[in-house]
Amino acid sequence: MNTLGLSMLLKMGCLCSKDDLSINNCKYYVLEELGQGGFSTVLLVENARTRKRFAVKKIVCHSREDQKNALQEIEYHKRIDHPNVIPCLESCVTGCADPVLNSTSQVLLLLPYYSRGTLAYLLEMRGRTRHYLDEGEILRVFQQICDGVKAFHDAKPTPLAHRDIKPANVLLDVDNTPIIMDLGSVATAVVQVRGAAEAQRLQDQAAEQCSMAYRAPELFNVESYCVIDQRTDIWSLGCLLYAMCYFKSPFDSVYERGDSVALAVISATIDYPTVTPFSQDIHQLIASMLKVSPMERPYIYTVIEKVQDIRQKIGGIL
């Protein structure tokens, strides 16, 4: 057999064979990789029996601490039950994470699959043609995102903060219903920082888990003695609403130029296009969330009220 023929057979073999994985004795075929982060991979899978498609988040754990964090993510899914937050349908753990033995464990989370993709993808497509979203539609979707964030802030027994709200972490259902995903960054909302060591630990954690262009100022330079609360998410929501209007976070261009995002965030200088289709009300709402001092930012309940007021003003349906 010539080399070309062998190559064709190998390609056919690759196309015909399917990797598979098992979650709680249920088999799934891996169809493709949907995305990859620093700590996990998201796969598109198909149930071997029903042929229904799902997403699987695969987290490879190299230490007991890694595994503890992955299991904590599953627990957060159990605590948050809301139509605008992605549910974890099944989960399982295989292997043993032990750096001494050079062994790893694998945590799998079975999630619904949303074929439309993320809000980030929609904004990227719209941004290429400068095709702005309708203000009423922006506010409808944003209010539902806020409703999802409120579920974290109202969590029992202690409030939670998502800590990485951004367009890439918002999926869109078939009717444009937003679904908040990726609970790997979720943490207890109110954190009392006591000392330089705790401050540095929280700052390092934020640098790992919170996207720079959506990260609150207090997480860039954590003070040695302070209280961090759920209003880190309010800052992120301000950046997200700006992105829904103008396709990117107000700090994305700073990053793209190679300038200091930290300095830009701490100064909170927000530029708006001179010609804009959006009302002053929506700009004021963004500005209210992008206050450098978290004490000056509203809580999620006030944000939702303001969104409802603007929607009523422009004739939106609540």
Give the SSE layout.
Layout: H1 3-16, E1 20-23, E2 26-36, E3 40-47, E4 53-61, H2 64-79, E5 90-98, E6 103-112, H3 119-129, H4 135-153, E7 160-161, E8 170-172, E9 178-180, E10 187-188, E11 191-194, H5 196-209, H6 217-220, E12 225-228, H7 231-246, H8 252-257, H9 261-267, H10 280-289, H11 300-313
Antiparallel strand pairs: 1-2, 2-3, 3-4, 4-6, 5-6, 7-10, 8-9, 11-12
Characterise the protein shown here:
With 318 residues, this protein is of the alpha+beta class. The protein folds into 2 domains: 16-112, 2-Layer Sandwich (Phosphorylase Kinase, domain 1); 119-313, Transferase(Phosphotransferase) domain 1 (Transferase(Phosphotransferase), domain 1, Orthogonal Bundle), CATH 1.10.510.10. The protein is 41% helix and 22% strand. The chain contains 11 helices and 12 strands. A 6-stranded antiparallel β-sheet has the order 1-2-3-4-6-5. Strands 7-10 form a two-stranded antiparallel sheet. The chain has a two-stranded antiparallel ribbon with strand order 8-9. It is globular, with a radius of gyration of 21 Å. The termini are far apart.
